[in-house]
Prior knowledge:
- By secondary structure, the protein is mainly α.
- Helix content is 55%, strand content 6%.
- The chain has nine helices and four strands; from the N terminus they run H-H-H-H-H-H-H-E-E-H-E-E-H.
- The strands form two sheets. It has a two-stranded antiparallel sheet with strand order 1-2. The protein has a two-stranded antiparallel sheet with strand order 3-4.
- A hairpin with a 2-residue loop joins strand 1 (174-177) and strand 2 (180-183).
- The chain is globular and about 55 Å long.
- The two termini are 21 Å apart.
- 37% of the residues are buried.
Amino acid sequence: IAKALVAGKIHNQRVLLMRNHISPPAGALLQLKQLRKKVERATSSEMLLGIEGSAARVYFENFSGMLKPGDAPLDPAAALGKPPRYAFDFRHRNRRPPRDPVNAMLSFAYTLLSKDLTVIAAAVGFDPYLGFYHLPRPGRPALSLDLMEPFRPLIAESVVITAINNRMVYPEHFVEAGRGVTMTGAGRKAFFRAYEQRMDQLVTHPLFDYRVSYRRLLEIQTRLMARLVTGELQHFPVFVTR
């Protein structure tokens, strides 16, 4: 199950780069393809974590190529010549706390997606805190994080890209918070709107060949996981896109 989830995540990362990067990097795409194949040869959770980490490094090294922030200000003060404090100049992934607007949005998107999957997992009948890939820790919804892996690129990271490229969120929506950066109330409201739009977007499920929203898709995938646990399925059909 863990290998299927990680392979699906890497596949979807690669597709997102091919779809959205201004100039899809051939070297990075090849590396991700090779790393996905390498997942099948993993013989331990440590090896799988290493492969996932390598894929994340390649992916986020090229993440900025999918962002088209423009330079239109939101705050009238900025329009009068006062430059915004922050910019959407993503360089690398950082967290706890996120130290730039793009990382702040990524962390927020993962939190929203994890919360939604925790509710869905509990509704299906799972204990969201017992997973297959993520280790159980106090207060950590391990199963939700497992189920989230293939959907990080398709939902969370896609929302961040859309929010920036469609001018739904601006640099003026971010303020300093201790050693990190956080969104203002207006920024969170705008980001919620981008997130809900993505969750309502329709996609064709490859197993059933009918169109459902991403929100409904999360429930379907969780129910398929339940069928795997009860022995009705032999393999978990991870959702991947083309």
